[in-house]
Amino acid sequence: MQWETVIGLEIHVQLATESKIFSGASTKFGAEPNTQACALDLGLPGVLPVVNEKAIELGVRFGLAIDAEIGMKSAFDRKNYFYPDLPKGYQTTQMDYPIVGVGHMDIELEDGSTKRIGVTRAHLEEDAGKSLHEDFDGQSGIDLNRAGTPLLEIVSEPDIRSAKEAVAYVKKIHSLIQYLDVSDGNMAEGSMRVDCNVSIRPKGQEEFGTRTEIKNVNSFKFIEKAINTEIERQIDLIEDGGTVVQETRLYDSAKDETRSMRSKEVANDYRYFPCPDLLPIIIEQSFVDEIKASLPELPDQKRDRFQQEMGLSHYDASVLSASRDLANYFEVVATEAKDAKLAANWVMGELSKFLNQSDLEISASPVSAEQLAGMLIRLKDDTISSKGAKTVLEAMWEGEGSADEVIEKKGLKQVTDSGAIESIVDEVISNCPAQVEQYTSSEPDKRGKMVGFFVGQVMKASKGTANPGQVNQVLKKKLDALC
Amino acid sequence: MSIDHDQVAKIAELARLKLEPSQMDQYAENLSSILDLADQLQAADTDGIEPLANPLDAEQRLRADKVTETNQREHLQKNAPSTEAGLFLVPKVIE
Description:
Chain A is α+β, with helices and mostly antiparallel strands and about 475 residues long. Chain A contains 16 helices and 16 strands. In chain A, a hairpin with a 4-residue loop joins strand 13 and strand 14.
């Protein structure tokens, strides 16, 4: 049977605030356990939450960027369950009146077409603490530093049809929240965590199948693997006559399988009710307008501008606009070198290769945008050959200074002086009588290929500094004169 | 509306309350009467009335995003039955 996959995602994004959503404790990552957990975060009696204005602002910022309705009146509710990393016994979240309503996100599919994924809502909530299960003699250790860190939970419609689409959507959200400074998007530190709701149905069937939820997947690679593994499991199960049970599952990346988290099922009755400690949040239109005016250029706008104003291909423009840091880097290179296409080629080509090899982000590149532009300027004015350019990049990567410094130090300046080139050519010709003999005795239509040997010799003799185009011309002229 | 013993047991479990069998009847009766009151409220005509998020006619005041709390770990952990390496220790919880 042909199966169709239906996926909806819930993405938890840690908001880039200094302090927690309801308390003045710091949200900084990596502090000593429980040094950033105040009486309120600990759920001690007698405390009252006060909402962080910045959390509201960041929520609205995200909402405006996905063209969503903004909750001008939003409210907090309590989601009740017991777990030691949630000392209050409830999570304060938004149920009926989220800060962000219906919006959408356009993703690009592999065939180049665009697909619109609906966003149902995005709501503010607090994060829980962390449980550590090792080394405590049968006990668990609880660190509540993360408790109360503001999260925005972005809930998609079940519009996604494959693991690849899911990854494209998550990457798009990831790019957007970084553009907006809504979150640092640091996935390794858990700033973005994804719950994947997955079900299958016979192709053509309208009704959804029973879904399972894979909790807390925190890398693009694992999202794709976890979903594909779960789809396979569901298909096998149904084709063997079984039925899918609605449940929460965990993805085990070491075994590449999902497994049931049974313990959570018993408590899956959250008894939401309005939080009596918090009044409704009322937003003024002027507040929204101010945020709207402060929005930066967004990835899709940037992509279109790179295409239309800078003449990049759709593919290049998409790759370069996907991350704000990459886009900014590219723009500096393109502007300084005054050649967008050349800049795009080098940023996406050689530079990215170096970055990938060292597993570095563009923001940590040892070669600055100004340095790269400096090299491209020398490539464009024929001071260096493209082979020389690669040598320059390599040297700049190793910290050997600016392009001009490297060119000078390594003697990479291309020889374009025709007299100098001619004398090297003459030398090569007189040193290789056998090859010259072969050349002159060949059929004229075979000679073209044979020039390559001489070009190689000349380049070698000039230590790569001769301009290859000129060498080619001079060689042809001189060799043909001998025939 | 009446609540049976199974429902009382489930609600008690969700709330982590331990009830003796002898208490079941009384809880069932009390909870049922609360639901009866809710039924009475349900009967009121609320067409065109905006749902109420909070009974106070006021709105939430917001605070600026500033760190105002300092590290009070030692003080705050004085009441904890068990701590180690700055962590609160609790009976093992594992998925």
